[in-house]
Write a structure and sequence with these properties.
The chain has 512 residues and is an alpha/beta fold. 41% of the residues lie in helices and 19% in strands. It contains 18 helices and 20 strands. Helix 3 (36-42) crosses helix 9, helix 5 (97-113) packs antiparallel against helix 7 (130-150) and helix 5 packs antiparallel against helix 8. It binds NADP nicotinamide-adenine-dinucleotide phosphate.
Length: 512
């Protein structure tokens, strides 16, 4: 964090008044069809976002170049944003469901219209290949569409009363102001997945996006303003470190709920901070997903599924396969085919043609993957491919496969969150289910098998919120996404996602 800039635009109010439409960064504009979106982000302070004199840099992980400097907001700005949301929320909730739905629809359409530019911003700040970034933007738009539709289906219920002179019913009402905190790995879809059900329900929100990837959130907010959300309903707080803003969101009584996606460690902290006010929480946290290949599986399909589940988004995915278990009788065949495909994955700048894997988000991510490899090798693991950095610029790492992995290694116990696939050999179904469940996490699991009896038994025995059967990818706006155990509380997506932003009120009418 710095308090001056080096000729790049900042958002402090004086600079903003001097030049209200300073584009954020030239390197990114190279990839944009039109710089209008940047100008819109630049105008965000005038549209109601609080301003700060402090700035922090956003960098491109492929090149290290500074993309933008943003205002580094703190408690004061967070409090101002909460006040705005608190004032605006009752008016937003008082609109008809159809009116709220219409604004969400318009936002969805604007995001579809600007998908290329949003994807370019996403690739520039996060590094993922442009095609993946576009797919993420479509996924984000799909959540807006889904909840624009769900806004019209917030039904209550009537209850047959136990006495003749009473009528009993349940109505659903918005929780109020929601504080939302999102991570850097899916900076567009996480914003949409949290905000759209909250807005559909009639809540107002304050969002703090991750320090590394705030620009696409800014762009989405600029489009939201164009879509016509009333002043104060959505509020953006940029911060280089989440703790001060997080504490304010958790301790301010005007905020009635916290919705967080990120690490289990920070999730625990936020839950503790919310406990004084018994504030509601939705937590989408870390995982340690097992990916199991049984001997009756279609091995080629399992190899393709493992590539998807492991290397999508450079392994920076909460539902990423963290441990691959392969039954002994098909182990060697799987390893040979898998390693062959992994060797052909191309690593590079997300804007280059044909790139499968972009850079890791930062040097901490590089250090973590290297420490997991070193630990595994020291305990008998074998490197089958990869395990090295690429080039001196950026944070590129060759996708890696390790075999002869055992449960005592860090790679089997902790979330690596990078392009590293450790393979563990197993003998029987009971053993592998026991080992797969032996973790504090319970977000996602995958397995490949064809025997129906086995498919049902294993699916039911895995202690996870989501299980992919003969597929390496399962996220959808139509499905409830979320974990059990220390992977979280609540669900996002589907009709269930809306319930997390609604309170149930029981009405009892007597004397009838
Ligand atoms: P993180 O360090 O927990 O950060 C997530 C967000 O929390 C960021 O916006 C961060 O802000 C903020 N934050 C950090 N410390 C905070 C504090 N003390 N109080 C309030 N906010 C704070 O996680 P990450 O490294 O960005 O994301 C990776 C993790 O997220 C992985 O564990 C992954 O599995 C998990 N994840 C889970 C899901 C899911 O749906 N279950 C989805 C995606 C990711 P700053 O960036 O400003 O520090």
């Amino acid at each position: 964090m710095r308090s001056t800039n080096r000729g790049l635009p900042t958002y402090n109010s004086a600079a903003f008044e001097r030049n209200p439409v300073l584009p954020l960064c030239l390197p990114m504009i190279r990839h944009l069809k039109s710089p209008d979106l940047f100008e819109a982000i630049d105008r965000l302070p005038a549209l109601g976002t609080p301003v700060s004199d402090q700035v922090f840099e956003v960098r491109n992980p492929s090149s290290g170049e500074v993309l933008a400097e943003l205002p580094n907001m703190g408690v004061e700005e967070a409090r101002a944003a909460i006040d705005k949301a608190y004032t605006a929320q009752p008016r937003w909730a008082a609109l008809t469901a159809r009116e709220r739905s219409d604004v969400l629809w318009r936002w969805h359409e604007l995001i579809i219209d600007q998908a290329d530019d949003l994807a370019a911003i996403l690739t520039a700040e996060m590094g993922k290949p442009f095609a993946e970034a576009k797919s993420e933007v479509s996924h984000a738009a799909a959540y807006l569409q889904w909840y624009a539709e769900e806004a019209n289906r917030i039904y209550g219920e009537t209850i047959p009363a136990p006495s003749i002179d009473r009528r009993m019913m349940v109505i659903k009402q918005p929780i109020g102001v929601v504080g939302t905190i999102t991570p850097w790995n899916f900076p567009a879809s996480m914003v949409a997945r949290k905000i759209s059900p909250a807005l559909a329900a009639g809540c107002a929100i304050v969002l703090k996006p991750a320090e590394q990837t705030p620009l696409v959130a800014g762009a989405m907010f600029a489009l939201a303003h164009q879509a016509g959300f009333p002043e104060g309903v959505i509020n953006l707080v940029y911060a280089s470190e989440g703790d001060a803003v997080g504490r304010e969101l958790c301790s301010n009584p005007k905020v009635r709920k916290i919705s967080f996606t990120g690490s289990t460690e920070v999730g625990r902290l936020l839950m503790r901070q919310c406990s004084d006010q018994i504030k509601k929480v939705s937590l989408e946290l870390g995982g340690n997903a097992p990916f199991i290949v049984f001997d009756d599986a279609d091995i080629d399909a399992a190899v393709d599924g493992a590539i998807q589940a492991k290397f999508r988004n450079a392994g920076h995915t909460c539902v990423s396969a963290n441990r691959l278990y392969v039954q002994s009788t098909v182990h060697d065949e799987f390893v040979e085919k898998f390693v062959e495909k992994v060797r052909h994955l191309s690593v590079g700048d997300g804007f280059a043609a044909g790139v499968d894997i972009g850079p890791l988000i930062d040097r901490h991510a590089l250090a973590k993957i290297e420490s997991h490899i070193a630990d595994a090798v020291a305990k008998g693991g074998i490197i089958r491919c990869g395990a090295e950095r690429i080039g001196r610029v950026g944070t590129f790492f060759r996708p890696t496969v390790l075999t002869e992995i055992s449960s005592i290694m860090a790679v089997a116990q902790e979330e690596t969150f990078g392009p590293l696939a450790p393979i563990i050999r197993f003998e029987g179904a009971d053993q592998v289910v026991r080992e797969a469940n032996d973790t504090i996490y319970g977000l996602a699991a995958y397995f490949y098998a064809s025997n129906l009896k086995r498919v049902w038994r294993v699916a039911e025995a895995l202690e996870y919120g989501m299980v992919g059967i003969n597929t390496g990818r399962m996220s959808s706006e139509a499905a409830p996404f979320g974990g059990i155990k220390q992977s979280g509380i609540g669900r996002e997506g589907s009709r269930h996602g809306l319930e997390d932003y609604l309170e149930m009120k029981y009405l009892c009418m007597g004397g009838i």
